[in-house]
Amino acid sequence: MLMQQLMTDLKTAMKSHDQIRLNTIRLIKSALMNEKIRLGRELTPDEELTVLSREKKQRLESISEFKHGKRPDLVAQSTQELALVSAYLPQELSESELTDLVKKAITVTKASKKSEFGKVMKVLMPEVKGRADGKMVAKLVQSHLN
């Protein structure tokens, strides 16, 4: 279904001569196709989400590097690409929603100390995949296990 949406959006971008949208969609399609070839089968929705999350993370890292390198032109381009990639991802969780999920995962796993961090993350990450940054999730889990 994601591939069909990308094809539709690609055609729209071609007709409107939106070069950034066109290039970004092509990059997303390419990343999905490469993953499909690597696995040797069709991607599951969860695997598509993983690829999109990876693309989003790459854009975030690029923005950080371009800011550090004082390249506002590339920061602006990467920011636009990030917005386009994010549009294909599920809605991000708010901090309060994420905190609630962390507390629930801690309750479910009956974790009470830092050494049980991995057990909590194992339960929590499938629920928040693609909807929250892993570093933020890890920080919240650590702060609640203290």
What does this structure look like?
This protein has 7 helices and no strands. The protein is an all-alpha fold and 146 residues long. It has 2 domains: 86 residues, Uncharacterised protein YqeY/AIM41, N-terminal domain (Hypothetical Protein Yqey, Chain: A, domain1, Orthogonal Bundle), CATH 1.10.1510.10; 51 residues, Arc Repressor Mutant, subunit A. The relative contact order is 0.10.
In short:
This protein is mostly helical. It has seven helices and no strands. The radius of gyration is 18 Å and the shape is globular.
C-alpha end-to-end distance:
42 Å
Fraction of residues in helix: over 70%
Basic shape: globular
Please state the CA-atom Rg, rounded to the nearest Å.
Answer: 18 Å
**How many distinct folded domains?**
2
Structural class: mainly alpha
Tell me what portion of residues adopts beta-strand conformation. under 5%
Overall mean pLDDT score?
A: 89
CATH superfamily of the largest domain: Uncharacterised protein YqeY/AIM41, N-terminal domain
Summary keywords:
146 residues; mainly alpha; Arc Repressor Mutant, subunit A; 2 domains
SSE topology:
Blueprint (H helix, E strand, L loop, with lengths): L1 H15 L2 H21 L5 H24 L3 H16 L7 H15 L7 H12 L5 H12 L1
